[in-house]
Design goal:
The complex is a heterotetramer, with two copies of chain A (about 90 residues) and two copies of chain B (about 150 residues).
Chain A: E1 2-7, H1 9-15, E2 19-23, H2 31-39, H3 43-48, E3 56-59, E4 62-63, E5 76-80
Parallel strand pairs in A: 1-5
Antiparallel strand pairs in A: 1-2, 3-4, 3-5
Chain B: E1 8-12, H1 18-25, E2 33-40, E3 48-55, H2 59-74, E4 77-85, E5 87-89, E6 94-102, H3 105-122, E7 125-131, E8 136-139, H4 144-151
Parallel strand pairs in B: 1-4
Antiparallel strand pairs in B: 2-6, 3-5, 3-7, 4-6, 7-8
Helix pairs in contact in B: 2-3, 3-4
Classes of the chains: A alpha+beta (about 90), B alpha+beta (about 150).
Protein name (chains A, D): Molybdopterin converting factor subunit 1
Function (chains B, C): Converts molybdopterin precursor Z into molybdopterin. This requires the incorporation of two sulfur atoms into precursor Z to generate a dithiolene group. The sulfur is provided by MoaD.
Keywords (chains B, C): Molybdenum cofactor biosynthesis
Chain lengths: ~90, ~150, ~150, ~90
């Protein structure tokens, strides 16, 4: 099942890409699994995700804790640093 | 309140002004208190050239709307708006505007403060600094105090 | 704050607008947060024709200045204004404006709220109601809640 | 010693006067003494001051509790109901 990944702020800069569409492997069940999987995709990913606990994740525009499963109907997953708006 | 109000939520490059936004809300005859919060770009003692505001289109509006609706559930509001700018913002310029109206001042102050605390920690915006010395600045780091401010509610 | 700021304090018949007053304060490059409070005349479900605002000239300004200076001592403010109207005020019109600026939002919210709580209970203003049915209304009674709001500081 | 008295809101309406200058009698030492003294000056004063504990008093533009003495240098004394501005 293809899913769109979007990256923001220094996560985007370190990965070197703003968005991409990937096929989620069977081994990826939770948000934490996804971060593990992505970290192995190359140097930029490793730099972006070296401290996975600071990475915030949104599934289809909703903040989601790392221990949650990624539903089969999820279409867009966003990875970004803690927010600094306001 | 008979019938919950609908919040005004906007993400935009353009500046805003308070009087226009308050008038547009047309908060109605039961409004006795209107609180506005404006967040401005500080000059950091002259070292900051500009802030670059990045956001997550779609989610930014969705999250701001969730925060606004939570405030509307918690306080008897007659008007609520949250407007956030994006793009390049110079020192002294506006970044964010929150407006809360209610019959009495306590609810208006609390709702505006609540929305700001949640906006800071939950709305997907990020600030990058550009320095006046020409060097590329850093991404602004989130403050522990902001999370604490959110948790008090 | 290096050097305490001087508050703007005014009692006037004329209306005010927020953007003009905020711009006039010129709060400077260290201001990251600007909170305004506007108190408005409610229509009381259509029964209120107007409020007549009486004040004690001289003491009103003196007391507002004392309250403002107390806020400036308690919070690191970059701007502070308190403007109160007098005379006949119609439903929907502005009565009072408080503006507080600071580097961070907590101080701006607290100072604006503090000034309003003390203004309500300490500044010598009195409201008389004129009813839409032509009958002379009563003097508005002070609320116990207002004294309680002041004592929390 | 002559002192100027000023009245506001329903205190002014009941007394029927906005201001007057009186000679403070020797018997008046505190703010409470003054309220007692004024209450005996006629029907309007009695109506205005029937509940003296609700009356607020300012000496030369400063709020003053009822138990305070009135200084010899006081030039203006204001009587008014609890404030309802803001």
């Amino acid at each position: 099942m293809p899913v769109k990944l979007v990256y923001f702020a220094w996560v985007r800069e370190r990965i070197g890409s703003a968005e991409e569409t990937i096929e989620l492997p069977e081994s990826v069940s939770t948000v934490a699994d996804l971060l593990d999987h992505l970290e192995g995709r190359g140097e930029g990913y490793a730099a972006a995700l070296e401290n996975p606990q600071v990475i915030r994740v949104a599934l289809d525009h909703e903040h989601t804790p790392h221990d949650r499963p990624i539903g089969r109907d999820v279409r867009e997953i966003a990875l970004f640093p803690p927010m600094t708006g306001g | 309140m008979a019938g919950a109000i609908t919040p005004v939520v906007r993400v935009q490059r353009a500046d805003f002004d308070m009087d226009t936004e308050c008038a547009a809300l047309a908060p109605g005859g039961d409004t006795g208190a209107l609180v506005t919060f404006t967040g401005l770009c500080r000059d950091e003692d002259g070292t900051l050239g500009a802030l670059e505001l990045e956001h997550y289109p779609g989610m930014a509006e969705a999250e701001m709307t969730r925060i606004a609706n939570e405030a509307i559930e918690r306080w008897p509001l007659t008007a609520l708006a949250a407007i956030h700018r994006t793009g390049r913002i110079l020192p002294g310029e506006n970044i964010v505007l929150v407006i809360a109206g209610s019959a009495h001042r306590g609810a208006a102050f609390e709702a505006a403060s609540f929305v700001m605390d949640f906006l800071k920690s939950r709305a997907p915006f990020w600030k990058k600094e550009h320095r006046t010395d020409g060097s590329e600045g850093d991404w602004v780091e989130a403050k522990d105090g902001d999370t604490a401010a959110m948790r008090r509610w």
